[in-house]
Amino acid sequence: MKVYSTLSGQKEEFLPQSDEVKMYVCGVTPYDEAHIGHGMSYIVFDVVKRYLQFRGYKVKYVQNITDIDDKIIDRANKLGISPRELAEKYTNSYFEDMDALNIERADTYPRATEEIPKIIEVIQGLIDKGYAYPAGGSVYFRVRKVADYGKLAHRSLESMRATEGAMGSEEKEDAMDFALWKASKPGEPSWESPWGGGRPGWHIECSAMSLKYLGDTLDIHGGGQDLIFPHHENEIAQSESFTGVKPFVKYWLHNGLVQLGKDKMSKSLGNLITIKEARDKYSPDAIRIFVLSSHYRSPLTYSEEGLEAAENARERLLRVVSRDDPTGGKGEAFDAEPYRKQFIEAMDDDFNTAQALGILFDLASTINQAGDAGISIDKAQGTLVSLARKVLGLKLPRIIVRVVSEAISVKETVNVRVAPDTVNARVNRLVEERVNCRKERNWRRADEIRTKLAGLGVTLEDTKTGTHVTYKSIPSEESLDSLMAEFGIAL
Ligand SMILES: [Zn+2]
To answer: Ligand 1 mean position to 213 CA, how many Å?
Structure first.
């Protein structure tokens, strides 16, 4: 397996320290709804984790929550609630989004406010070793003391100084130095420390938490490319200075950023699309397919067309995995092994999900052809479903395809799956009514029934063998009852 590490700037053989891969990904600062950029990053690292597990590794995955920060304090003040309340609200909202996107939970979600003792311990250690100094109730990191500072961002101290130098403050020894501990202003949340009341800086949190939960050296550290500098550069400086152990991280993985048109998607440009907005319009599987269709290190351009295409692609997969085996599973099987191997090769090459997805779609087409030719497809379907679900994290529920015969006999309904009988019975009545309308050439009423059912997630398709009924979602009995009442039909 090869992975691209930002530190070396090239693909490297993946050799973790042990069979248990230690993985850390920077988490959210919960002061507002998570946006599609977060969605991309956490989907990408969810797939990284799933694939490592698929390849036989155990993965210990830690993701922090920065539940105290300037942004949280500012927003809470504006809303007239406590920072704690605000952080709690958006942390819950974040987990709801992650669950909806089928992102597996990390093993631990340490919160900054609950890790203050460890953070203080690391800061004190850095002071003791001369890497940090207290000033005015805050503590700063002495950047110039780290000879290889800039090695991750591949920038020299001088070039960084030119861009960051303006951010100096009176009490710092050097404009490049950054805060490990911030003295609190009156009215702000504050924790006791050897340097007075204050709160931790953002960078030190990740060093302290990864050290506490994963040890001195991580196998994988992930995050968006916007975190490379200064956040991850500072994490390296802090961690390696504190432990004396190099490297702090074996493989640095960074995902590309989401753009809207030509612009970066950002809070300051006001063009953020939240995960909830995307979820209102598109299925979680479509959002995942959209993200995984481009390489994780490339920028991803958010577009309605792109998501529509992903939704259609999802539907193609659903139809293929929901097909019945023409031999009832007893005929000669269609061999999907070559596709499985290609899929693994693509994923082994720095998690090339775009290529891996392409292979799954090729497999889907071949399954269709085989099914049409009367060859057994159920094993190949199993391969497709297992790779899509286990590695790519698609839910890919088997949709329910039913064929209602033109003979208007519900008894001839075949292939009924999952939907409760009470729902099936109601949909059948509506389909029967529509078939009758068509026989009587009452096209308007027939179309109306079809349109209204589609509004409830039930699509009808007229084929040679009868009406195909597809449930995109299972409607409630009540909604079907009121639809039947509208058309004057009784059960
Ligand atoms: Zn971090």
So the answer is: 14
